[in-house]
Each structure stands twice: as structure tokens, then as C-alpha cells.
Amino acid sequence: MMKRNIKIFWLILFLTMLADGFSQDTATYTADVSNSYVFWHSNIHKGTVLLKEGEVKVVDGKIVAGDFLLLMDSIKDADIDYDLMRKTLENTLRSEIFFDTKNYPLAEFSLYYIEKNKENEKYKVMGNLTVKGITNCVIFPATITVSPDKLLAVSDTFQINRFNWDITVYSKHDSTDNGGLFIADNIDLAVRLVAVRKKE
């Protein structure tokens, strides 16, 4: 009788665990590319890069993964009023000496770790950023809210070293004569992501 009761107990426990697994709320949030962007700022200029597409996987309200493609040809300057000068800068940034958007039209960010800081309620986000075929880890803090139908993530400003992605032109470390023009090695970035829940 005891053995039978033990078997029934384990059967109930197994079915309960199985039911809990199936009852998880698993959702995919798709990036609203018209309202999402990456803001960049060097010591000279600032602007934006737009998203091509992106998805965030959420299980029971917790982010477990995310993948995003950046449209590098969309890079824009936001501080030059004169059209010709602004377009000249943007075309230079798209050229092979910077982002080489003809051969590398997309950059990619793949989130692989996220943890909430209980003290300030911000999240520590870690992921791989691939630019010009080169991948490096980036880490940044962000404020993230997840509702049943929408996800909003706004990062703090953080820095990356452009040398890690082989973007070395106009640097004090570059032996080429830059005509007195120097761009800082570290570039400031900030991310704004708006995503909506995909209908199942």
C-alpha cells in the first residue's frame, strides 16, 4: 500500500511539474523599427543608426534572449545644419575607411545575459556586437519595462572602443596625416528599443 502511495505521489508531482512547464507564458516581442534606434556621439559629431529588425524572447515576464540587426546605411548625423557638409560626413561614415556599408550593410547585437540590479532596478545587459564582421562583447545598464503587449528598453550612455572593430582612421594612434582632425577612440552609445508582443 505504501509503495502504491509513493508511486501515486511521484506521478502527481511529475504531472504538476509538467503542467507548470506548459503553463509558462512565453512571448516574442518584435521591434518597432520606426521608434527604435541607437544614438551615437563622438567628440566631434553625433547622430543615430536605425534598426532593420529585432526580436526579444520573454518567459514569464523575464527576458531570456534577444537578437537585433542594425541598418548601417541608415547612419545619420544630427548636429550639422548645412546639407552638403552633413551628407559628406554621412557618406564618409558609410565608406570603407569607416563602416564599409557596401560590404557590411548590417551590424548585429545578440543578447546572451541579462540581470536585474535590485538596488536601482536597472538591468545589466551583456551581448555580442558584430560590426564589419568583427564580434566583441559589450555591457551596458538599461531601464526595461515589460507589459503584456509592449516592451520598452532605454539604456544609459555607455562607451565602446572603435579600435575593437578595426575602425582606426582619424585617431591619434594612426600614423596617417589627418590634417589635425582626430576622433576619440571611445564612442558613446545609447539604445532605445520599443517592441510589441507578437500575436500567437
Short description:
The protein is an alpha+beta fold. The protein is built from two helices and ten strands, in the order αββββαββββββ.
Architecture overview:
β2 and β3 (46-59) form a beta hairpin. With 200 residues, the chain is α+β, with helices and mostly antiparallel strands. It has one domain (25-197): Beta Barrel (Lipocalin). The chain has helices spanning 2-22, 83-94, and strands at 26-31, 37-41, 46-59, 62-77, 106-116, 123-131, 134-146, 150-155, 158-161, 186-197. Helix content is 16%, strand content 48%. Strands 1, 2, 3, 4, 5, 6, 7, 8, 9 and 10 form a ten-stranded antiparallel sheet that branches.
Distance between the termini: 46 Å
Strand percentage lies at: over 45%
Main sheet specs:
10 strands, antiparallel
* Structural shape: elongated
Specify the CATH homologous superfamily.
Lipid/polyisoprenoid-binding, YceI-like
Number of domains: 1
**What's the order of the H and E elements?**
HEEEEHEEEEEE
Uncertain stretches of 5 or more adjacent residues: none
The CATH architecture classification is: Beta Barrel
CATH top level class name: Mainly Beta
Please give the count of helices.
Answer: 2
Alpha-beta content class: alpha+beta
Helical content (DSSP H or I, runs of 4+): 10-25%
How confident is the prediction overall: mean pLDDT?
Answer: 88
CATH topology: Lipocalin
